[in-house]
Amino acid sequence: MRRSVRLFRQFRYEQSEPARFYGGLANDSVRQLSQYADLRGATVLDVGGGPGYFREAFLDAGATYFALDADVGELSGRGAIPVGTVVGSGMDLPFKDGAVDVCYSSNVLEHVPSPWRMADEMMRATRSGGIAFVSYTVWFGPWGGHETSPWHFFGGVRARRRYARKHGHQPKNRFGESLFPVTVRAGLVWARKQVDAGVADLVDVSPRYHPRWSRWVLEVPVLREVVTWNLMIVLRKR
Q1: Which of 31-37's residues contact partners 24+ apart within 8 Å by CB, and which partners?
Q2: Residue 78: Cβ-neighbour burial (10 angstroms; 0-12, 13-18, 19+)
Q3: Which of these, 125, 137, 195, 198, has the minimum number of CB atoms within 10 Å of its CB?
Q4: Are 177 and 161 contacting, i.e. CB atoms less than 8 angstroms apart?
Q5: Is the pLDDT at 216 greater than 90, yes or no?
Q6: Handedness of CA 223, 1, 14, 66 (dihedral sign)
Q7: What are the C-alpha distances in Å from 4 to residues 13, 53, 184, 208?
Q8: Residues 50 and 30 sit within 8 Å (Cβ to Cβ)
């Protein structure tokens, strides 16, 4: 519970203090991912890696780290783009089949127009026996509209317009352009398809930032959409 409270508090600083927010999230992510894969010596591809906060955490854990992002401005947010960074689309990864031990993505699926195509690409790039870790912000959850929350509950377009009127500029995450609605149900359906097709084994699925005992909410169709802040799916490729 202490971890959940700490993470929820950090979300307040995503826009105002990104180093504080993303640095804390990166360290927590590495600790969480280490439960499913040994990162020492592992080749990790971070799809949607951004300006480098996750790089430091993964390198400290002993991984060989590569990041991919489509936004050059995002990649250079802390200065020069680091070595090992690839500019490209998550929906068409420029990596060969089975190229990495761990394919990781945090809070990116909701920012691409074809999220499950990106998830399929992540599975393709993961080697047999490797881990694909996918997590994303759920649209109907409390932070689904990102900085336009909680007005996204009244519609993404309406929330975007309200934000622009109030602040005099468009939000960073623009509904219909760089923010799209992704549900818990869609993630569970995609994960089940990987298992049924013999592509991967399901290792874990849970509300990522909640206490582990709260995973039962995923069994309740409507409740899971509104109380799940972020859905985490972990698969081991066959």
Answers
A1: 32/208, 32/232, 33/102, 33/104, 33/131, 33/133, 34/61, 36/131, 36/133, 36/203, 36/204, 36/234, 36/236, 37/101, 37/102, 37/130, 37/131
A2: middle
A3: 198
A4: no
A5: yes
A6: negative
A7: 15, 20, 19, 9
A8: no
Which amino acid, residue 38? Answer: D
The one-letter amino acid at 114: S
**pTM for the model:** 0.88
Beta bridge partners of 106: 135
Residue 236: CA count within 13 A, CB half-sphere? 10
Cβ–Cβ < 8 Å for 36, 70: no
Q: What is the rounded CA–CA span in Å between residue 93 and residue 203?
A: 23
Listed in order, strand segments (DSSP E) in the chain are 43-47, 64-69, 85-87, 100-106, 126-137, 200-207, 230-237
What pLDDT, on a 0 to 100 scale, did the predictor assign at position 213? 87
